[in-house]
């Protein structure tokens, strides 16, 4: 099975990648289209030069690898993707051969977390419109990171049942530290997950965003709420 897990940044996506890798039967790939996205847009992201140098930046070659054999002879292939990396003209037909799953998080939490790491944040950066577009183009289960954190076992069981994969307790724990399959950007973004050994506890109240970020929240919130209404429930 090939699984394309679509989510915006700061959205429990790396922990989910670690969870599926911990099964032992899944090859994983960390944001395959990040380097092509940066190379095409010239976006000023942390470590941009290193990312484009260290990772394949040709979207056609990345798409061919996504459509190709599962690495390492593993039974399954889990790919962590971000919708805003899929620029117009980038191949997307490879995803038709995947089970597509859509991971969401309340935009207030996404905005606060992203701004803490990068300073500035735009709707393009957090990818809510792109995720809605991809969810409509590539339908599949929707899961909310808040539900995973509230009850990881139950939600992971539901995800596995929905996509036709056996659940295993191995998905709930992993050793701390970086992984060989992390993208080179991990040292900027993955500090919290590298310190973790499993899914973090449920989050508290929503953050109180500064006035400058409230228009962004107003744009993203209806998209989140529409997808949230279709999410797998506890």
Automatic annotation (TrEMBL):
Transmembrane segments: none annotated. The keyword Glycoprotein does not apply. Gene3D superfamilies: P-loop containing nucleotide triphosphate hydrolases. The keyword GTP-binding does not apply. Signal peptide: none annotated. Belongs to the class-IV pyridoxal-phosphate-dependent aminotransferase family. This is Putative branched-chain-amino-acid aminotransferase protein. It comes from Roseicyclus elongatus DSM 19469. The lineage of its organism: Bacteria, Pseudomonadati, Pseudomonadota, Alphaproteobacteria, Rhodobacterales.
